[in-house]
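Human: Respectfully, please carefully check these C-alpha cells:
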Amino acid sequence: MLEMIGAYYGVDWLAMVLTVFSIYDLGLKRRRGFVLGMGANVAWFSFGVMAGSVANPVANVIFLCMNLKGFLNWRGTSGS
C-alpha cells in the first residue's frame, strides 16, 4: 500500500491538490484558478507519461490550452 503512495514521485498528489485549488478558485471567480489549472495539467501530463497512458497526456494538453484561453480571455468581476 505505501509503495503505491509514492509510485509516481508525488506527481499524482501534486496534480490532485492543484486541481482542487484550481476548481475552488474558479468557483470564487479568481483568475489564478486558471494558472493553478495549468500547473495541474502539467502534473497530470507527467503522471500520464509515467503511467504509460496515451489518452491522459493528450487530454491534458487540450485542457492546458483551454486553461490558457480562459486566463487570456479573463474579464472577471471579482478576485484577481
Remarks:
- The CA atoms of residues 34 and 66 lie 9 Å apart.
